[in-house]
Recover the amino acids of this structure.
């Protein structure tokens, strides 16, 4: 049965938050890092006879709500896929609309985040974005860098393959500069050159909207992530849907290749 997380008893340990399901006297580990592929804005708009841009406007609202929800229930890291390296293939008008929403959010965040305990980070290649956006992103990261609550990663112009290429290039340069030898390269050193450096890998990756693909999201980091797919279009997504995904995650048996 679905139990809202507030009905679980929470116990903090050094490494994790343990939830005890009081009805069944079972202990679960709350996911530390959740990734969300915010999908289905376009189909939601079509279903409601609206322009695709209206779906993104609604999607941006759900994003705001889900961030607050994650902070409230004690998730430590949330990574949302807002714009991929492939999304530039969309009509210019749609791309402009998403960038406009992103700018509005950044301006709002710069005032709102003073009172929130959220540390905001941006993952992806920001170099091709407008100077205005880059400045706002840098300001947002600077202003929230000492916050101790939820770490929010917003993936903008992000692609998992692109991120791995970036890491490989940086490590190749270190080899050429004589700082390391090729044999010094390890899984750990590759992780250290990803945008998510020093963050734990995602435990749970959620993709709503009925699509069953990873779409280049956190390719390296998701090696042992648990996936959760459902049919809800992102603009219809609520905290209850998120809790259902977390509850499903809590029931899984993660073996990491062991037995
Ligand atoms: C995927 O749905 C969604 C996107 C590519 C854009 C996501 C953007 C937002 C949620 C709003 C802006 C975000 C921030 C951080 C303010 P889709 O358009 O591919 O939907 P479809 O598959 O139904 O066409």
């Amino acid at each position: 049965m679905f139990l809202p997380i507030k009905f679980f008893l929470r116990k903090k340990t050094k490494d994790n938050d343990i939830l005890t399901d009081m009805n069944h006297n079972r202990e679960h580990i709350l996911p530390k890092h959740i990734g969300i592929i915010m999908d289905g804005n376009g189909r939601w708009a079509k279903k409601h006879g609206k322009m695709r841009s209206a779906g993104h406007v609604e999607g941006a609202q759900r994003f705001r709500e889900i961030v607050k929800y994650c902070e409230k229930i004690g998730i430590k890291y949330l990574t949302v896929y807002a714009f991929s390296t492939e999304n530039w293939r969309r009509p210019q008008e749609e791309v402009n609309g998403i960038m406009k929403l992103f700018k509005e959010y950044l301006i709002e965040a710069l005032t709102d985040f003073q009172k929130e305990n959220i540390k905001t980070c941006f993952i992806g290649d920001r170099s091709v974005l407008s100077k205005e956006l880059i400045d706002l992103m840098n300001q947002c990261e600077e202003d929230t860098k000492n916050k101790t609550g939820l770490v929010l990663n917003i993936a903008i112009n992000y692609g998992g393959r692109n991120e791995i290429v970036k890491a490989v290039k940086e490590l190749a340069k270190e080899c050429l500069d004589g700082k390391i030898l090729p044999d010094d390269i390890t899984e750990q050193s590759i992780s250290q050159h990803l945008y998510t450096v020093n963050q734990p890998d995602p435990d749970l990756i959620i993709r709503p909207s009925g699509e069953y693909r990873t779409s280049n999201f956190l390719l390296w980091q998701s090696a042992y992530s648990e996936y959760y797919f459902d049919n809800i279009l992102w603009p219809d997504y609520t905290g209850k849907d998120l809790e259902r995904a977390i509850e499903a995650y809590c029931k899984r048996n993660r073996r990491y290749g062991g037995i």
Q: What stands out?
A: Residues 175 and 182 are 6 Å apart (CA to CA).
